[in-house]
Amino acid sequence: SAGDLWNDVMVIRHGIFRLYYLDSEAKESNKGFFCEGQILAPMARSAKEEPSLFFVETMTYVEVYQCRYDQLATLLNNPLRSNRLLYNLAEGLLEDKIRRETMFLQL
Fold this sequence. Notes:
Blueprint: E1 8-14, E2 16-22, E3 28-35, E4 39-40, H1 45-49, E5 55-58, E6 63-68, H2 69-75, H3 79-105
Antiparallel strand pairs: 1-4, 1-6, 2-3, 2-5
């Protein structure tokens, strides 16, 4: 929820999540939708260290693989384990950025 610290990393096995903001008049604005095979986790330092600015809602029944962010970070300190995962994360972030830019430019 907004105001909570986000300490978990989730890989979505099944289902759909919606992330959204509420303005001062309780109007909702979608931040994004995440579904099967995607990772739902804080990426920016501020997202890990400061209270969340948005809400997370399940749109359907969901199943996730979940672990604490700090536990995953400890595992990934080994470069042999982390290189492929980090490449896939960076690739996914770039694809999401391109989709958001395209949607924004087509408004």
